[in-house]
Design brief:
Layout (H helix, E strand, L loop, with lengths): L1 E9 L5 E10 L4 E5 L6 H9 L6 E6 L2 E2 L5 H9 L1 E5 L10 H11 L4 H14 L15 H13 L5 E5 L7 H16 L3 E5 L3 H7 L2 E6 L2 E5 L1
Helix pairs in contact: 3-4, 3-5, 4-5, 5-6
Length: 219
């Protein structure tokens, strides 16, 4: 699903965020990307989102060199991704239901279809009873569940998550990971960046550790 060959990302003044990185993630895998702050985890996710492009090397997703995608193909590629952030990025002025349904509305999915699908994913994360609430009325754990519901509504082939439990306590973190495991069990490839080594041990999935933009440990 994801093939990375000799990938480097250099910022100003010769600062390497990633250095000669090579990595393969198979379709349907659940992989943790770990390492200290500044190790390169978020940079790699931004490259996968095509928010940035590599300085050198190759980045293939499902056979596509995503650094070379033109606008139309890039939009189509991004629709195949679900993204979850540490700070949730919910729209404060929209209800829970509207936040989750938003992507499908933008894509022109018929009203009856998106209403049905939105209720389905809210029920899956256990928050259908909160669908008329607003983000500021929810706990951190509830907001992250809504963010996950929004990420999976289009049934993406890949989920990317950047420190999705960084603001949550250990028990809530494990609950959130269980949702990711359920998504993965349906065949979705899951890549999660986290510095929480204890959580990685509890979930027991493949992990890749970065340090100064290099892979230093893979299990």
């Amino acid at each position: 699903m994801i093939e990375i060959e000799h990938l480097s990302k250099i910022y100003s003044r010769g600062l390497y965020a990633l250095r000669d990185l090579s990595l393969t993630i198979e379709s349907g895998e659940f992989v943790f990307l770990t390492g200290a702050s500044g190790a390169g985890k978020s940079t790699l996710l931004r490259l996968l989102l095509r928010e940035e492009v590599p300085t050198a090397g190759q980045l293939l997703v499902n056979g596509q060199a995503i650094g070379q995608l033109r606008r139309g193909a890039l939009q189509e590629y991004r629709r195949s991704l679900g993204v979850v952030f540490q700070d949730f990025k919910l729209i404060a002025r929209k209800s829970v239901f509207e936040n989750v349904a938003f992507v499908q509305r933008v894509l022109g999915v018929p009203l009856s279809q998106r209403q049905r699908r939105t209720f389905q994913v809210l029920k899956w994360v256990g928050l259908q009873h909160r669908m008329n609430a607003y983000p500021q009325e929810l706990s951190g754990g509830e907001q992250q569940r809504i963010a996950i519901a929004r990420a999976v509504i289009n049934e993406p082939s890949i989920i990317l998550a950047d420190e999705p439990t960084g603001n949550l306590d250990p028990d809530l973190s494990l609950e959130i990971m269980n949702l990711f495991r359920e998504v993965n069990a349906s065949g979705t490839t899951v890549l999660i960046a986290t510095h929480d080594r204890e959580l990685i041990q509890r979930v027991d999935r493949r992990s890749i550790m970065l340090d100064s933009g290099r892979i230093v440990e893979a299990a």
